[in-house]
Structure formats: structure tokens, C-alpha cells
SPASM domain-containing protein (Geomonas terrae), 469 residues
Amino acid sequence: MTDYHTFEQAGEHYLFFTRSARLYQISRLAFGMLAEFFPPTCAPEAFPPDPPRPLPAEESSLYDELRDLVTRELRAPVPAPQAQHEILQGNSYQTFSIYLAQTCNMACCYCWNRGGTFGKQGHLMGWDTAQRATRLILSLVERSSADKVFINFYGGEPLLDFPVLQQVTQELLQHEARLEKNFYLTLDTNGTMLDGPAAQFLARYFTQVGVSLDGSQRIHDLQRPGKYGEETWQRIANNIKAFPNQKLLGIRATLTTFSDSYLETFRHLTTLGIKRIQLEYCHEPGYHQNPIYEKLIVPPERQLAELREFVDYYVDYISEYNDTRDVPFVSNVLDNITRIRRGSRFTRPCGAGANTLAINSHGTVFPCIAFVERDEFAMGQVDDSQRLNLHQSLEGFEVDDQHQCQACWLRYDCAGGCYATHYDMTGHPRRPHPEYCQNMQGRAEVYFYALTRMLNKCPWHLEKVHAPV
């Protein structure tokens, strides 16, 4: 197993320990000595008490310090496996995604689920199926150990089925007190229908509304045209500015090879006055094995270079503020940085099918939104709350038991990665693609670098981080 990792970012050198999640900023000399004398796959007993070759007094002392540090850290206990939750009894279901509309009024060039249709006939859930889905959710929540329950309306464009959205919302909320649970309702929308009664309703009952907008008007209208090729940026921007409670809004941009840089996209989005911004690149190479889609993928080297450029700009930018309320923030970057800072260790991935479920517009239940319409992973129908079956490949996963993960220094942060992405890239949910792993590791190094820069220049930003409810 690999239990520590050294790397360089922007001329600085770092040492990260896999088991304890401790991160050290080290000198160039220490960086070189670790590479020469302390192989990360060796047991502490293999480190000789004296240097293998004569060293100057100063370097000999550093050798002793490094040997003691690495020995101590490598003797830290391996994170304990997490308890396996049963689906039918004592469940821990907390997050539900409802594909309210598997159809869309836009034709985005990179849409991973083809407007929610997955290449099939478009379909709205309708009240009959939605009512049965609501009963399933309430039944599972009643037996769940979770106090907070997150319910996301997804698509396609879920506001195409707005009357049903209203009915489901009212039905869920009227059971909140009886179940002694807190429901947090969220919605992902393309923003073209975020006006009138729909905007008023969401502002009153919802916790968070995510709107897709790809930066500048030129780039957005190129990547996210309407169904008939019409421009959509101005309409969405107007809806965002007119939304009754802008604190609920977050903007999500997807970056392709045609996009402006990460930093430039962020700058464009901050002009809209929304504080919560999420920037994501198109999925890893190999996703969906679609040659046209592949041309939209930003090369990993460019992704990392742009992310580093953004981190340097952003840390300098926010260090000038004294109050987080004045600062737009990139939620996915800060989520990763604060998670790293907490040092939580994980031995299993996201919990797809164990604490998350997704329901498509026909009432079929899947482990998560990324598995919807993959028939082999269907868990049952909304009427089958007592007979939901999780695909065997998603059960019993432990990262230290996975051959491909054992030598990875990031394994207790990544915890094996995304089942659905692995399935798309390699044909098996437990077999990550090497490029996926390399990209995860590269981004993690940038996040570690960002964390140290924030701790040095603006630690208050981490103390008051804008976290979701």
C-alpha cells in the first residue's frame, strides 16, 4: 500500500499522509530526501536508523526528523470500514432525486443524459406516478436514521412539469412534522422557465435552486441553445435578476474546449450578483464513449493549469475582504478544500442505493441520478418499497480490498470514486479508468495547495465557509 505522497505545486513542496490526512509543507531538501531514502510503499521497519550514505550534519539531522515523522505516520491505524446499512431495515436514506421531466426545451451540446431522455421518448412524470413516488419516499424516510432529508427535482427540465412539482412539494411538507424530519427541497433548472408563479413558488418553499449558465453570453449561447437553436442567455440572466430570493440561487457552469478559462468563466458569472457558483468540466475522457462528446472534453493538463490559475487569483481576491457575505465563491472548490481540512477518512464511495435513490419519470427506482435508465441497475418500482434490490456490484465495497485502489495515496479521500463514471468508462462500476484516477489525484494536489494558501492568507474564509444546509 502507498501511505504517503509528495508533490510540488507552484514551486512549493508538500507531504501528505494517507491514513491520518495530515498535510505538511516541506523544504526542497526534505522533498529530495524523502524520494531517495523513504519509499512510500515501505513499512517503517525498513527505514534504517542511519542514512544509507554519509550526509552533512544538517542533512543527517533532517534525515532523523523525517524518519521519525514518516515512521509515526505510517503506524497510524487504517480507517475502520464503515458499517453496511441494510436497505429494508434501519436504512439511512437521506437523498432522493426525482426525474420529474425526462424531456427538455433546450439542446445543450454536452448534455450527458440527452435532455433527460437518454435517447428515448421524452416523458413527464405526471401526478399518478409522482404520488406513488412520494409515498415511497415518505415510507423510506419514516424508517431512516437520517434527520435531514434532501429531495432534488431533476431532469431534463423539471419546471416543464411544474403543476406536479407543486403537488409533490405540498404532499411532502405536510408530513414533515409527523415524521420529525427536516425536508430540504432543491431543484436543478436551465433557468428559461424560472419566472412567474414558478419563481414565486420556489422562492417560498425551496432551500436551493441551481441554474445552468455557462459564463459569457457568447459561450453560453454557443453551448446551450434552445431546442430550435434560439439564444437563451439573456432570458436566463433576466430570470436570475428578477428571482424573488436570490440567496437561494446557485449558478452552475460546464466548461468545454470551447469555453473561456476557468477564471474567466468565474469572472463572467460574478457580474450576475449570485454568490454561489459551481464550475465543472465535462466528464472524464471515455465518458459515454461518444466521439462527438469527446471533442468537448478539456484536456486534463489544461484543466489543472486553469484550476491553479484560478486558485492563485481567488485567494488573492478574497484576502481583500473581511466578510464572506461580500465574496462570490466556487462551491465545489471550497467543498473539496474544507473536506480535506476536516481530514475525514472514507472507505466506501458515495452510498448510491444505500443512502441515495433516484426515481425516473416512469417510477423506476435507481441507486442515483447517474444510474437512471441503466436497466441492469434498476432496483424496482415505486410501489416496491419492501423489495428494492441493490445491484450486487454496488454492495460490500471496501477501498482497501480493491486491487486498483490499494496503491493509491488518495484512496481514503476518493474512497473508490464514482460507480457510474467507472461503469461508463470501463464497463464495470468497481473498476476505475486510469485517466479518471490521474485526474482525481491531480485535482487533489491543487486543492491541497489551495488549502495552504488560504490558511496563510485568509483563514477566516475557511472558518465561515458557505456550506449548504
Notes: Residues 84-89 have pLDDT under 50 and may be disordered.
